[in-house]
Design a protein that fits this description.
Strand content of chain A: over 45%
Mean pLDDT of chain A: 93
Structural class of chain A: mainly beta
Largest sheet of chain A: 6 strands, mixed
Radius of gyration of chain A: 14 Å
Shape of chain A: globular
Shape of chain B: globular
Number of strands of chain B: 11
Radius of gyration of chain B: 13 Å
Distance between the termini of chain B: 37 Å
Helix content of chain B: under 10%
Low-confidence stretches of chain B: none
Order of helices and strands of chain A: EEEEEEEEEEEE
Number of strands of chain A: 12
Largest sheet of chain B: 7 strands, mixed
Strand content of chain B: over 45%
Oligomer: heterodimer
Distance between the termini of chain A: 41 Å
Mean pLDDT of chain B: 95
Largest interface: A-B, 22 and 24 residues
Chain lengths: 114, 112
């Protein structure tokens, strides 16, 4: 079945540090790829997406590139802020004849300190 | 445009009871999906509804059911609640089935 592997958290960084959160997936067909972010006590917010190979999704300084050959969609940010502290979820979206769904990784908690 | 709304935001129930959660999608969105989030199992897919029909169902027992109305609003029902049903239930809507899903704030269900 479809699955996602994300790096274990928590990831603790100092403000202005470089961030990488690794994500690899297995999925049938040709999924679209998403990163969602969850702040404490809230639902999921769409962070960025990519729909085909070599596409780069970007938003709020975060970037991720759809790497079909390595089935990866690593999240990066050049300079993190305290306000980026949250849990980040990688999720391929698979379209199948039986229905469509997002498959989520375990999430990676990011803590940014001053 | 208003986002996805879910009611109630918090619920406390006891074992054996049943519960109904409601989701109103973004205006114009026709597809609604439900997910369960727990510390142990993470985020798991429950159902997908489109045009008042269930299109996909996750690996959950029959105690979990749902429906979608003609205005695209959706409800999910859990009967005979168990302690393990305590979770954050998230609803997501999309313009059509293959489109980006936008999530609501969730309903936190506690089963005592």
């Amino acid at each position: 079945g479809d699955s996602v592997t994300q790096m274990e958290g928590p990831v603790t960084l100092s403000e202005e540090a470089f961030l990488t959160i690794n994500c690899t997936y297995t999925a049938t067909g040709y999924p679209s790829l998403f990163w969602y972010v969850q702040y404490p006590g809230e639902g999921l917010q769409l962070l960025l997406k990519a729909t085909k190979a070599d596409d780069k999704g970007s938003n709020k300084g975060f970037e991720a590139t759809y790497r079909k050959e390595t089935t990866s969609f690593h999240l990066e940010k050049g300079s993190v802020q305290v306000s980026d502290s949250a849990v980040y979820f990688c999720a391929p979206f698979v379209l199948t004849g039986g229905g469509n769904k997002l498959t989520f990784g375990t999430g990676t908690q990011l803590k940014v300190e001053l | 445009k208003a986002g996805v709304t879910q009611t109630p935001r918090y619920l406390i129930k006891t074992r054996g009871q049943q519960v109904t959660l409601s989701c109103s999608p973004i205006s114009g969105h026709r597809s609604v999906s439900w997910y369960q989030q727990t510390p142990g199992q993470g985020l798991q897919f429950l159902f997908e509804y489109f045009s008042e029909t269930q299109r996909n169902k996750g690996n959950f027992p029959g105690r979990f059911s749902g429906r979608q109305f003609s205005n695209s609003r959706s409800e999910m029902n859990v009967s005979t609640l168990e302690l393990g049903d305590s979770a954050l239930y998230l609803c997501a809507s999309s313009l059509y089935r293959a489109d980006t899903q936008y999530f609501g704030p969730g309903t936190r269900l506690t089963v005592l």
